[in-house]
């Protein structure tokens, strides 16, 4: 008879988040040795990780941390199902990964995965928990936002799930309330660039060519074309440039005007939405 009790099974399940049957079998194989049972479960899960490599990870969470040194870190940790995403072990893993990559100052997922903590890389830490929970998991995105001040906004799309949209705004100034309002606007409006100058020249040229062709096909007067084209380009920039967008809370003002009135300057931002 195996040298373990139902209390041992319960304790191991709570520690690892594994199923009753798998936990009991591992303890039986390990003859009640908890450490050996953990290794058995991890080995079994690691073999499953390879089989899950091609699965999609459309669920997960976003998490953020103000690093207190003029930077803040935003991550997206992905998994396969919302059941795992809202579980305590996955949320704990996300917080652990966030702390590690934030401390390292990682600026992207590739570098973050190679950061070591207690003898293991972030990639190994994620793989171990993926093996135990039986789902593919991946650190999909990491962003380091820079600015004298930082404002973080995490949006919950469902009361049953962890945050699904995360925004960090880096700014100069002291008005955190307005910066938070801008972060909420970003969560809703999803701008692509901070300023007009950040938009790649080839994208602007492509749009200019398109609106000119549309305007000519509409039979607009030749003399009026330059003004019409610039007007339509302004609409293009409003769609994708944060500072030129109408503020979601009061569309009589642009984000640039709102920030200026509050005495702040937005210097950087990041926005992640799970699965997008």
UniProtKB/TrEMBL annotation:
InterPro entries: EF-Ts_dimer_sf, Transl_elong_EFTs/EF1B, Transl_elong_EFTs/EF1B_dimer, UBA-like_sf
CDD domains with a match to the protein in the record: UBA_EF-Ts (cd14275)
Source organism superkingdom: Bacteria
Keywords: Cytoplasm, Elongation factor, Protein biosynthesis
Cell compartment(s), UniProt: Cytoplasm
Chief location category: cytoplasm
MF annotations from Gene Ontology: translation elongation factor activity
Renumbered residue ranges of the record's region Involved in Mg(2+) ion dislocation from EF-Tu: 81-84
Domain Translation elongation factor EFTs/EF1B dimerisation: start-end pairs: 72-275
Parts of the chain that traverse the membrane: none
Task of the protein: Associates with the EF-Tu.GDP complex and induces the exchange of GDP to GTP. It remains bound to the aminoacyl-tRNA.EF-Tu.GTP complex up to the GTP hydrolysis stage on the ribosome.
HAMAP family xrefs: EF_Ts
Family in the record: Belongs to the EF-Ts family.
Protein name: Elongation factor Ts
């Amino acid at each position: 008879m195996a040298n373990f009790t139902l209390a041992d099974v319960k304790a191991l399940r709570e520690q690892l988040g594994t199923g009753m049957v798998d936990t009991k079998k591992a303890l039986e194989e390990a003859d009640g040795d908890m450490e050996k049972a953990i290794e058995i479960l991890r080995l079994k899960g690691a073999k499953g990780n390879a089989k899950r490599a091609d699965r999609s990870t459309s669920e997960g969470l976003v998490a953020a941390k103000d690093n207190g040194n003029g930077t803040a870190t935003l991550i997206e940790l992905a998994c396969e199902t919302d059941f795992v995403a809202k579980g305590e072990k996955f949320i704990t893993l996300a917080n652990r990964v966030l702390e590690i990559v934030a401390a390292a100052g990682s600026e992207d997922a590739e570098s973050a995965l190679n950061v070591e903590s207690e003898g293991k890389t972030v990639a190994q830490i994620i793989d171990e928990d993926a093996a135990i929970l039986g789902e593919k998991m991946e650190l999909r995105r990491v962003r380091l936002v820079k600015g004298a001040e930082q404002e973080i906004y995490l949006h919950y799309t469902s009361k049953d799930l962890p945050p699904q949209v995360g925004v960090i705004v880096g700014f100069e100034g002291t008005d955190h309330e307005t910066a938070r309002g801008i972060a909420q606007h970003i969560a809703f409006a999803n701008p692509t660039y901070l300023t007009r100058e950040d938009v790649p020249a080839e994208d602007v040229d492509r749009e200019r060519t398109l609106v000119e062709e549309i305007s000519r096909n509409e039979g607009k007067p030749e003399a009026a074309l330059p003004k019409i084209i610039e007007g339509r380009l302004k609409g293009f920039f409003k769609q994708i440039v944060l500072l030129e967008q109408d503020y979601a809370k009061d569309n009589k003002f642009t984000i640039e005007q709102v920030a200026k009135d509050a005495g702040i300057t937005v210097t950087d931002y990041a926005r992640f939405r799970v699965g997008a």
